[in-house]
Fold this sequence. Notes:
The protein is an alpha+beta fold. It has one domain: Beta Barrel (Porin), CATH 2.40.160.20. The protein has an 8-stranded antiparallel β-barrel with strand order 1-2-3-4-5-6-7-8. Strand 1 and strand 2 form a beta hairpin. The radius of gyration is 26 Å and the shape is elongated.
Amino acid sequence: MEKARLKTFSLCFQTLIIQPLNPTLYAQENANQLKSYSYYLNAGVGGSWLAPNQGAISTGVSVCYFDGKNLYSIRYVRNLELKLNRGSCPSEEGVLDIGLMYGRASKSSYGVASASAGLGLVHGSRCAWDYSTGQNRYTDERFYTVGIPVEIQLSWTPTSFFGLGIIAFADLNLQQSFAGGLLSITFGSIN
C-alpha cells in the first residue's frame, strides 16, 4: 500500500512540478507553433460584374490569418459601376461588402492557394426611377442586406513577407450580387 502511494506521489510530483519547469519541452512546442501559422494583408485592384449587366471597377483589402490548413479572413470589396455619362443620376452606383470568412488553404515554399466563404454585410446605391413625384428624374436608392462572400486566392510568394497574386471573389445576396477578380499584393508573415 505504501509503495502505491509513493508511486502516485512521484507521478504527481513529476507531472505538476518537474515537467512544467523543463524548458526543452516548451522550446520544441513553440518552434512547431511558430511554423504553423502566418498572417498577411492582401490589397488589390481589378474589375467585376454587377448583376444584371453592369461592369465595375473593383478594389479590395483582406486581412488573413492562416493556421495549419485553416484560413480566417476579414474582407472588404468595393465595386463602382463603369459609367462615362451619368445622365441625371445623382450619385455613383456601386456595391460593397464587408465579410467574415473561413476557408481552407495550402501553403508551399513558393505560394499560397485558398478557398473561403462566410457571412457579410452588403451596402450599395443605385439610381431608381422616382415614381412619387411624377417627374422624369432619378433618385438615389440605397440598400443594406446580408450576403454570402466567396473568395479564391492564388499567391506567388518569392519572399516570406511579400507576394503577388490573383483573387476571384463573389457575393451572393438578394439586392445586388456581384463577382470579379483582383490583381493583389500581399504583405505580412506569409511563409
